[in-house]
Amino acid sequence: LLPSLRGGSDGGVGGDSAVGSSPTSDFYLSAASDMLASYVDALAASGSMPITRSEWYDEEVNIAKSEFLESEQRRQFGIFTGRASGDEVVMTEPRRVDLLDRPDCLEDVF
User: Fold this and answer.
1) What is d(CA 69, CA 78) in angstroms, rounded to the nearest whole number?
2) 26-41 in b/e burial notation, b at 16+ Cβ within 10 A?
């Protein structure tokens, strides 16, 4: 499953060409590969796969625009119904996306 890590005559890492790979190391590599595949499958099924930096940034910008439009519509509806209060903070533009809030993205993991 992971031939580049296996020792043996194929020039892999961890053994010289005269010594073949042991069944024990093959078993551990196979078990590690199966566990990694199961972990990635579980992440994909739960929707927790990391996204790329550009996807995260685009999503945050869209959320900021949506928040701005919602607050603007709420303000305009308050004026229309006569329930507008002067205590509200009026947003003149969407909030800026803080890059320090970015979680680990796909580029950070690999």
Assistant:
1) 14
2) eeebeeeeeeeeeeee
**59 in Cβ contact with 102 (< 8 Å):** no
User: Which tokens hold the place of 43?
Assistant: 């992440």
- Given a cut of 80, is residue 95 above it in pLDDT? yes
Helical (H) or strand (E) element with 107: helix 106-109
DSSP conformation class of 82: T
* pTM for the predicted model, two decimal places: 0.50
* Strand intervals (E) in the chain: none
Read off the pLDDT of each residue in 33-39 and give the average, rounded to a whole number.
86
**N-terminal to C-terminal alpha carbon distance within the chain:** 20
